[in-house]
Amino acid sequence: MHSNFDLFADTEQPHRSEQIGEQSWVLRGFALSRIEQLLPALESVIERAPLRHMMTPGGFSMSVATSSCGALGWITDRSGYRYSAEDPISHQPWPQMPEVFRELAQAAAKQGGFSDFIPDSCLINRYVPGAKMSLHQDKDEHSYAAPIVSLSLGLPAMFLFGGFARSDKSQRISLLHGDMVIWGGVDRLRYHGILPIKYGRHPQLGEQRFNLTFRTAG
Ligand code: SIN
Ligand code: FE2
Predict the structure, then answer these.
(1) CB 150 near ligand 1, within 6 Å
(2) Number of domains in the chain
(3) Which of 37, 65, 92, 177 lies 20 to 30 Å from 198 when distance is taken between CA atoms?
(4) What is the pTM of this model?
(5) The CATH number of the domain where 141 resides is what?
(6) Containing domain of residue 148, as a range?
(7) pLDDT tens-place string over residues 108-147
(8) Do the beta carbons of residue 31 and residue 23 sit within 8 Å?
(9) Torsions phi, psi for 39 (to 5 deg)
């Protein structure tokens, strides 16, 4: 794993970036300078499209509670995983992606070498202690040309970053409030997941973790 410090003109703070794959990076604390704008924007999205536990095609309720914003939202139910332009509960379009979300995702993607990232979907997952995300690939998007850009908020998590088969060995990467991960290009279809969240209380977000993943889905 490579580690280095970069100075970013747009955030006026040094960030530690760790390369975790040929085209994959962890940007430590990258979102912290925008946190006071990000949290109210997140709250407002969730007010309009409340978090809910979706059902997997196999009939299990997911341990994370999910919402979305942007033109497309990722959903799952008994008929499968897919993107939808409307919230299946309200039958309304998903809330617009807040400008602060889009700007942050684009700035992070740029640091990872993806300078023309245009996210049309932001999946919001809320984890309470014990919630987890099993190893999976993000592969419901129309094209894999764009990277996945992820933002962690609240309680810490252990992120598993694997290979191209579920059984490949995974790196274990601890993600903290404000950290971002980018994976794309040759790494776009790597398996990844989250170990069960440990009990704890985050000073700003309490007993929960949010993960936002930005994608170009359509
Ligand atoms: C995901 O793969 O959708 C979640 C990753 C995370 O929670 O950090
Ligand atoms: Fe994922």
Answers:
(1) yes
(2) 1
(3) 37
(4) 0.94
(5) 2.60.120.590
(6) 2-215
(7) 999 999 999 999 999 999 999 999 999 999 999 999 999 9
(8) no
(9) -65, -45
Rounded Cα distance between 194 and 160, Å, is: 6
pLDDT tens digits along 18-65 = 999 999 999 999 999 999 999 999 999 999 999 999 999 999 999 999
Tokens 């999976």, residue? 136
- Here the tokens at position 173 are 């990467």
Query: Looking up tokens 């039958």, which residue turns up?
Result: 91
Residue 107, amino acid: A
Specify the amino acid at residue 163.
Answer: G
- Is the CB–ligand 1 distance for residue 66 below 6 Å? no
Instruction: State how far the Cα of 16 lies from the Cα of 33, in Å rounded to an integer.
Output: 14
Residue nearest to atom 2 of ligand 1 (CA): 193
What would the DSSP string read from start to end of 100-138? HHHHHHHHHHHHTT-TT----EEEEEEE-TT--EEEE--
**Which chain residues have CB less than 5 Å from ligand 2, an ion?**
138
Give the C-alpha distances (Å, rounded to integers) separating 193 from 10, 40, 130: 30, 27, 14
